[in-house]
Design the sequence.
C-alpha cells in the first residue's frame, strides 16, 4: 500500500477549485492517487482520464445530515486501500479522521476551522470538542491563516502543525492585463454596463455567511453620492432568489447585477475597479487572492483569513462585519482616488506573487510531503 494517497473533501467543486496542482504533484511522484468526495453536482471524469481513482462518498455539508452516517461507513471502507489521507473541508475531514486506522498517515489541511471569532459561543464549543475528539490520532495539520495557527497550537501538539499560504493561486492566469477600449466595451456591453460606469465585483456563494445583503445596502448608500457604478454579484447559492428580490425592493436593478456562477473570472476582473468580500467567516479566500493578483484594490471585512491578505491602507481596506456604511465609505473613497487605488492594486499583486502564488505554496507543501514520507 506504499506510495498511495487519497484526497478527501466534502464536495467535488473543492477538488476542481483548489486541489488539481496538488494531485498532479503526487501523480508526478509516482503515487497511486484517489479522490473521495460527493460527485453529485460535479463529476470528475477528466481526473479519471489522468489515472486518478474517483470514489463517490455521500458527504453532506450539513453536519447533522443522515447521509453523513453512510458517508462515514463508505469512507472507512474506501480509505483502507490508501497509505496517506489528504483531508480537506470540515465535515469530510472529521469523518475521515474518525474512520482512519493506525496504519494511515493523516495530513489534515484546515481551510478555516468551523469555530471562529464571529461564531456563537455554544457552536464554537461544539466544534472545538469535535476537533479534540478527532485530533487524538497522529496527524500532520496544515493551517492557512494566522488565526487558525494560534487556535491549532491550543488544540494540538505544536510539532505537528504547519503554516502555509493557502493552496496557491495561478498568478499568470490573473496577471493584470489592460484590455483594449474595444475589449472593455464589448465586455461591458455583454453585461449591460455603460462604458463610463465603474465596476465593483463580489465573488462568493450566495448564502448568509457571505453577506451579499450588506453589499446591497452599501450600494444604496453609494447611490446617494454618485451614479456611475455597477456592482457584480458573482456566484450561486441557496439565497439567490431572496437576494434578487431584495435588490428589486431597494430599486437597485440599475446598479447591481447577479451573474450566477461564472467560469470567466479573469475576464470579469479585467474590467473590475474594486474587489469586495464582506463575509462573516473565511479561511483564506481565493476570490481575494485572485482580485489582488489582478492588481485590484480590495474592500473586505476584518476577519480571519481576509486580514492575512488585505493589509489595511496597503493593499485595500478592512471594515467591520455587517457595516454597509463602512463598505460604502471605502468604496466611494477608492472610486474618487484612482491613483491611490492603482497603488494599492500594485502592492496587492506583489504580495500574492511573493507568498500566495502556486509555485510558492507548492514549495511549502513539498517540504511537508517529504516530512510525511520520512515518517514511514
Sequence:
Amino acid at each position: 500500500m506504499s506510495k498511495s494517497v487519497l484526497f478527501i473533501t466534502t464536495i467535488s467543486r473543492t477538488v476542481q477549485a483548489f486541489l488539481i496542482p496538488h494531485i498532479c504533484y503526487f501523480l508526478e511522484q509516482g503515487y497511486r492517487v484517489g479522490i473521495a468526495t460527493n460527485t453529485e453536482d460535479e463529476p470528475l471524469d477528466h481526473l479519471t482520464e489522468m489515472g486518478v481513482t474517483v470514489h463517490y462518498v455521500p458527504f453532506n455539508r450539513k453536519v447533522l445530515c443522515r447521509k453523513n452516517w453512510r458517508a462515514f461507513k463508505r469512507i472507512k471502507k474506501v480509505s483502507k486501500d490508501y497509505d496517506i489521507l489528504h483531508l480537506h473541508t470540515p465535515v469530510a475531514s472529521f469523518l475521515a479522521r474518525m474512520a482512519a486506522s493506525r496504519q494511515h498517515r493523516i495530513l489534515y489541511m484546515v481551510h478555516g476551522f468551523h469555530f471562529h471569532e464571529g461564531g456563537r459561543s455554544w457552536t464554537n464549543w461544539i466544534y472545538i470538542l469535535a476537533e479534540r475528539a478527532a485530533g487524538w490520532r497522529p496527524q500532520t495539520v496544515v493551517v492557512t491563516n494566522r488565526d487558525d495557527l494560534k487556535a491549532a497550537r491550543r488544540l494540538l501538539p505544536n510539532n505537528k502543525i504547519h503554516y502555509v499560504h493557502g493552496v496557491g493561486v495561478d498568478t499568470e492566469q490573473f496577471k493584470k492585463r489592460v484590455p483594449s477600449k474595444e475589449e472593455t466595451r464589448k465586455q461591458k456591453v455583454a453585461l449591460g454596463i455603460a462604458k463610463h460606469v465603474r465596476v465593483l465585483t463580489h465573488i462568493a456563494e450566495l448564502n448568509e455567511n457571505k453577506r451579499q445583503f450588506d453589499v446591497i445596502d452599501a450600494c444604496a448608500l453609494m447611490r446617494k453620492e454618485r451614479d456611475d457604478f455597477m456592482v457584480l454579484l458573482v456566484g450561486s447559492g441557496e439565497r439567490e432568489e431572496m437576494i434578487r428580490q431584495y435588490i428589486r425592493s431597494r430599486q437597485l436593478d440599475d446598479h447591481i447585477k447577479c451573474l450566477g456562477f461564472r467560469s470567466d473570472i479573469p475576464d470579469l476582473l479585467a474590467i473590475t475597479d474594486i474587489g469586495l468580500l464582506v463575509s462573516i467567516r473565511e479561511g483564506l479566500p481565493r476570490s481575494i487572492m485572485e482580485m489582488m493578483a489582478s492588481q485590484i484594490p480590495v474592500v473586505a471585512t476584518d476577519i480571519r483569513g481576509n486580514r492575512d491578505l488585505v493589509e489595511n491602507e496597503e493593499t485595500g481596506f478592512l471594515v467591520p462585519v455587517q457595516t454597509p456604511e463602512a463598505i460604502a465609505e471605502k468604496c466611494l473613497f477608492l472610486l474618487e482616488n484612482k491613483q491611490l487605488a492603482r497603488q494599492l492594486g500594485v502592492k496587492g499583486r506583489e504580495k500574492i506573487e511573493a507568498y500566495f502564488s502556486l509555485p510558492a505554496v507548492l514549495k511549502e507543501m513539498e517540504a511537508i510531503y517529504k516530512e510525511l514520507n520520512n515518517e514511514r
Summary: Residues 143 and 149 are 6 Å apart (CA to CA). The chain has a mean pLDDT of 92.
